Amino acid sequence: MHPGPMNRGVEIDSDVADDLSVSLIQDQVEMGVAARMAVLASLAARLDNDR
Q1: CA 2 from chain center: how many Å?
Q2: What secondary structure letter does DSSP report for 21?
Q3: What pTM did the predictor assign?
Q4: Could you read off the pLDDT of 16-30 as tens digits, one per residue?
Q5: Whole-number Å distance between alpha carbons of 22 and 13
Q6: CA angle 8, 13, 15 (to 5 degrees)
Q7: Integer CA distances (angstroms), 38 to 15, 34, 42, 47, in order
C-alpha cells in the first residue's frame, strides 16, 4: 500500500495519479491510515492490559 504523499513527477505522473479510473493511490493512502490507526489502537490496548 502506498503510504502517501505522492512524489508527482518523480515516482508518478500527475495525469496518472489524478485519474481515478487507473490510480489506486488515494484509496491506498486512505485505507493505510485506517489500518495503521487500528494497529496502534490494538497495541495501546495491550499495553493498558499489561499494566
Answers
A1: 6
A2: T
A3: 0.57
A4: 888 989 888 888 888
A5: 12
A6: 115
A7: 32, 6, 6, 14
